[in-house]
Amino acid sequence: MGALKPMVKIYQKEQSLSFFKIIKESLQDIYASRFLSRQLAERDIKAQYRQSILGIFWAFVTPLATAFVWIFLRSSGTVEVTDTGIPYPLFAFTGTLLWSIIIESVNSPITSTNSSKSILSKINFPKEALIISGAYKVLFNSLFKFLLLLVFLFYFGVGFHPTLLLFPIGIVIMVFVGNTIGLLITPIGMLYNDVAKAIKFGFQFLMYVTPVVFAIPAKEGIMKTIMEWNPFTPLILTVRGLGVGNIPADLTYFWIVLGGCVPLFLIGLVFYRISIPIFVERLSA
Amino acid sequence: MKEVAKKNEILVEAEGVSKKFCKDLKTSLWYGVKDIFANVGGNKKERVLRPKEFWAVKDINFQLRRGECLGLVGHNGAGKSTLLKMLNGLINPDAGKITMRGRVGALIELGAGFNPILTGRENIYNNGAILGFTRKEIEEKIEAIIDFAEIEEFIDMPVQHYSSGMKVRLGFGVAAQMEPDILIIDEVLAVGDLGFILKCFKTIDDILPNTAVVFVSHNMPMVSRVCTQIILMEKGQSKFQGTDVSKAIDLYYSRFSSNEKNEIFSDGSLSLEEADLLEAVNIEGVSTLKWGDDLKIHFKFKINKKLTSTPRFNIVLLDKEQRPVAILENNNKDSAISFSENSIEFIITHKEIQLSKGVYSINISVSKKIDGRHPLLRINNILSLQISHPEEVWQPFLLKSKFTEIN
């Protein structure tokens, strides 16, 4: 249609293209398919809410329920947690809501790709649009979680402070990091169901070594070490800090995680692009 | 426009294209994991078959220019769809090279991306986006699409309440708006009513002259109607290739020819003893008559239960696609049928057969009375015969005719 240059496509086995060329093509396709990504996200969001009465409520249920359980455990004295520095309910709510955003973004690439299996095997379109539309969907749900968090922040008396303006950016970063991890596991995850199951299973435990419902223990020990090394820790701590207004003093690890995700995301794109035909070939209906 | 100059350019080129598949899923998945890593590193090694693999497509070569139509025919599992997927860039060949010059449109799945809960109008955007339209283009074309699909009234209804024909119409309506240089068609037009199918063919006919078309079909009359060249595939390989479309179609049919009689019904009172085609020449195992010869068939039945009167014989000729093309006149009271205590025997003749070149089969049904009720026996495919003629036509009859001058 709009393209003026003659489109010549060559398909052959030799993947002699350089890594950088694939990245370039991949990014070009992301740009070229921006309408498609939006349309796909719009389609899924609309369809999801048109068939539901409670709608967005379902996005909150799990994180809020987890938070309530912990608030109850703590207030009833069943468990004792390290002092969090802010009202505990606020700590728990921010923790579980942010954690749910991470989980959703990790799962997003694999879910979007798998749900488009039937189209993938029949129509040639820029596959990257699936990743981007997945990210849009996560961001859409996150928007409501963000608004809910704002309510909590004001309810627990944190109020407005300048870093609050960076809070949304923090959430976008979390989605980016989550998507990067998701994208890296997608090629294998599309071939084997085990990956998606392992992720679901693993993240249940991962939550307890991340300061989601309790803070990093002050006492030296194995838990403290694991939590400090866990790359999700700086993410949760920093983004929660942006919300409640006490950003951790040392942001080095946060920047390392974020900085590391940029090349990893690009590598993920290359693997994704290469693995789609293999996926279609082996599992297309 | 440079269109005229480009008339002869080669748009699709396949050079030694091969693809292998794996028979076992577990192994296939594991190979998949290995391939992902190998391909990221640049996998230039020659691909050989690993255990449990086979060539689904092997060494296919062709060139297709603008205005030409390539028909891909073959049995189920011959590798046609795999080849289409490679042409469409969905999967990569394991050997060889495919070059596609221009915009590719694929009519493989109509209505891809439809979400059943959303309305027809919303789904036009979804499907359009997947086919590569921009929002602006869809907005410009949406009225044309709705008109084409003829579902104005239901356009704001969820697609899940559409009939399958309506869905296909809407899907084709969107796809028809593509202006491709190369069009790939896999049997998608099977659904939909006749009016719509005719409309689709008209659309395809309109775009044919400016497009290179690759057409997969089991519908041979359709193939002979549109295709300028043909590849008959068998077990992934090209069995026949060229511009002689009718020859390929003959070959395709000959793969199916089974000479098995098929008794559909019998009440036990009659059984067929003999059925021969008289004065026919045996060519490669098929009884052959020249066009214009007399068709003479000798029948002999054994009577197992006593019959009160001469039964009626209904003899039908069918073409290669099992469509009845002709029926021989029934017997009446005056027919010369020798009817004895335990057998019935006769020869039926049709003078100067004018069926066109091809292979035909014969079915017979016998019923008790002249009025045709009470079936006694029905046998399909009792004989097959071939009509030979130098000229190949796809219509079932080549009728003798004469042109005269007017003076």
Secondary structure elements and pairings:
The complex is a heterodimer of chains A (285) and B (407).
Chain A: E1 8-12, H1 19-32, H2 34-50, H3 57-75, H4 88-115, H5 117-120, H6 128-155, H7 167-191, H8 193-206, H9 222-229, H10 232-244, H11 252-283
Helix pairs in contact in A: 1-11, 2-6, 3-4, 4-6, 4-7, 4-10, 6-7, 7-8, 7-10, 7-11
Chain B: E1 10-22, H1 25-40, E2 53-65, E3 69-74, H2 80-87, E4 95-101, E5 104-107, H3 120-130, H4 135-149, H5 164-175, E6 182-185, H6 194-207, E7 212-216, H7 220-226, E8 229-234, E9 237-242, H8 245-254, E10 262-266, E11 270-278, E12 281-283, E13 286-290, E14 295-303, E15 312-318, E16 324-328, E17 338-339, E18 343-350, E19 358-367, E20 375-388
Helix pairs in contact in B: 3-4, 3-5, 4-5
Domain ABC transporter (chain B): 31-260
Keywords (chain B): ATP-binding, Nucleotide-binding, Transport
GO molecular function, one term (chain B): ATP hydrolysis activity
Stretches of chain A where pLDDT is under 50 for at least 5 consecutive residues are: 1-5
Task: State Rg of chain B.
Answer: 27 Å
Query: Approximately what portion of the residues of chain A adopt beta-strand conformation?
Result: under 5%
Q: Summarize the main sheet of chain B.
A: 7 strands, mixed
N-to-C span of chain B: 49 Å
Biggest β-sheet of chain A, characterized?
A: none
- What spatial form of chain A do the alpha-carbon principal axes imply? globular
Return the domain count of chain A.
1
Mean pLDDT of chain A: 89
Which class of secondary structure composition applies to the elements of chain A? mainly alpha
Would you count the extended β strands of chain B for me? 20
Number of helices of chain A: 11
CATH topology of the largest domain in chain B: Rossmann fold
How far apart the termini of chain A lie comes to 30 Å
Instruction: Choose one word for the global shape of chain B.
Output: globular
**Helix content range of chain A:** over 70%
The topology string of helices and strands of chain B comes to EHEEHEEHHHEHEHEEHEEEEEEEEEEE
Q: What structural class do helix, strand and pairing data of chain B support? A: alpha+beta
Transmembrane segments (chain A): 53-73, 85-103, 138-158, 164-186, 198-218, 252-272
Main location (chain A): membrane
Pfam families (chain A): ABC2_membrane (PF01061)
GO molecular function, one term (chain A): ABC-type transporter activity
